[in-house]
Amino acid sequence: MLRGGEGHRMSSHMALERLSLESSEADYAKYRSLSGLVVMGLVFAVFGLSALLTPWLAVLPILGSIFSLRGLSAVRRNSEELTGYGLAVSGLFLNLVVLVSSISLHSYVYATEVPEGFLRVNYSELQLATNAAGTVPGLPVPQRALELHDKNIFIKGYVYPDGRQSGIQHFILVPDLGTCCFGGDPALTDMIEVKLKEPLEIEYSYARRKLAGTFRVNPQPNGFMGKTAVYQLDAEYVR
Question: Which pTM does this prediction carry?
Answer without folding.
Answer: 0.75
